[in-house]
User: Fold Drug resistance transporter, EmrB/QacA subfamily from Actinacidiphila guanduensis.
Amino acid sequence: MPDNLQPDPKRWTALIFIALAQLMVVLDATVVNIALPSAQKDLGISNGDRQWVITAYTLAFGGLLLFGGRIADLWGRKNAFIVGLLGFAAASALGGAAVNPAMLLGARGLQGVFGALLAPAALSLLAVTFTDAKERAKAFGVYGAIAGAGAAVGLILGGVLTEYLNWRWVLFVNIAFAIVAVLGAIAYIHEPAQGRNRNRLDIPGVVLASAGLVALVYGFSRAESDGWAAGVTIGLFVASVVLLAAFAVVEGRVKAPLLPLRVVTERNRGGVYLSLGLAIIGMFGLFLFLTYYLQQVQGYSALKSGFAFLPMVAGMIVGSTQIGARLMLRVRPRLLMAPGFMVAAVGMAILAQIKVDSSYAEVLLPGLVLMGLGMGSAFMPAMSLATHGVRPEDAGVASAMVNTSQQVGGSIGTALLNTLAASATTSWFKSHTHSPADMKNVLFVNEGNVHGYSVAIYVAMGILILASVLAFVLINAEVQNHAERAEGDGSVEDMAVPVIVH
Assistant:
């Protein structure tokens, strides 16, 4: 083996710090949710503006991910990783010290900007660091578990920090994460030199992709608050379609595209992005409704509701590191992803049976465990396959597409399923209310809300079944136990990232 393809002796220590950075980015999407009521009261944020504490982060993050991925390819992933960490820490410090709503919202937007640089840099570092098939399986098993469980961990951490310290610590805690990860990156992360992209940045692509993704994410956010038929909602969706269509045309013509179409048109990667995005739609909707259900109907505290998700976190870790990582070297990716999404759908079907007085042990526990096992088993090969076989100079943008499908999927899931739940609850009240006094009965109101949650969870189950079918039909990669040549001309540079044998 040539020297430049020898495995990095510090790669397993490097994995710790890459995983820590990924955990910070993923949990920050949910850690603030639990603390939001306290922050709203402290800073005097209006009910109309409170959603922006979440939306400011997701808009900047989702809209700039492709740009961040390409910057990582141009600057080098290690450089982008460190700058992303430092920027994220600074933005978190600013948010934690916020004295008014504008300062908090601005800080959350900045977190999203640096998160969009950090997330694809982390995943692409993993892709170019672990090139042996067995080691790659283990590394992506750890990464997949963190990517899948991070959102639930955020709910737990948010509950602990808010209850025992105050809401500002859900932001300040990122400073400690970032400092440890930066020091670890400097000491242990080594990026192969041959993977750098030396082309100029595609400015028209950056503008069109960022504007199109922001319009899409913002459109779903407005649909949640204003309704699907509102003029501004429809206008944003139309603008998104036009901008993203123009982006696709531009990318097919420019010399050095932001997103080379070969990254998404390759059958297996396209199948991963689509099926993973759909699965995330269902999963994020579940977090939303179960949080409401546990706190508003069952009366759980923020801390207790966060810990209620632990069985799902455990299931994801087992599914990703024990099932996914072990079977990935023996079975084809679609035979892990499709059954994984289907097991998660079965978990959803159980969770859809919730009633006002449901027992946690009889309904929520088995449903959450199956959700975790299924999603963990599917995430592992999905994360690996999304960057497997891509040209080294495209690793950053291919990684960004994984994060983009997750971020856009999460935004769509929250808005779509929340709107469906609200509509189902309204319909239930119309058909069951016999007098104005009914709406003052807490049990009656809870029954209507739980009916809405149940309907939305059934829809999420259907989306997971669709993700399972698409994964089985579209993904035709062989077992990932080879380190063959990547897409390209067969040069040494092309072989830095292993490929899937078709």
Notes: Residues 483-502 have pLDDT under 50 and may be disordered.
